Amino acid sequence: MIHTSGLTKHFVVKKKTVEAVRGIDLHVEAGELVALLGPNGAGKSTTLRMLTTLLPPTSGSARVAGFDVVADQREVRGRIGYIGQGNGAGHSQRGRDELISQGRAYGMSVAAARARAAELIASLDLEGVADRVVSSLSGGQRRRLDIAMGLIHAPALLFLDEPSTGLDPQNRANLQEHIRELRAGHGTTIVLTTHYLDEADQLAERVIVVDHGRVIADATPERLKADHAGDRVTLTFDHEADARRGEARALDIAAGARAERTGARVVIEVPGGAQLTPKLLRSLDEANLDVVGVEVVRPTLDDVFLNLTGRSLREADAATPETATTTPQESAA
Ligand SMILES: Nc1ncnc2c1ncn2[C@@H]1O[C@H](COP(=O)(O)OP(=O)(O)OP(=O)(O)O)[C@@H](O)[C@H]1O
Question: What is the number of domains present in the chain?
Answer without folding.
Answer: 2
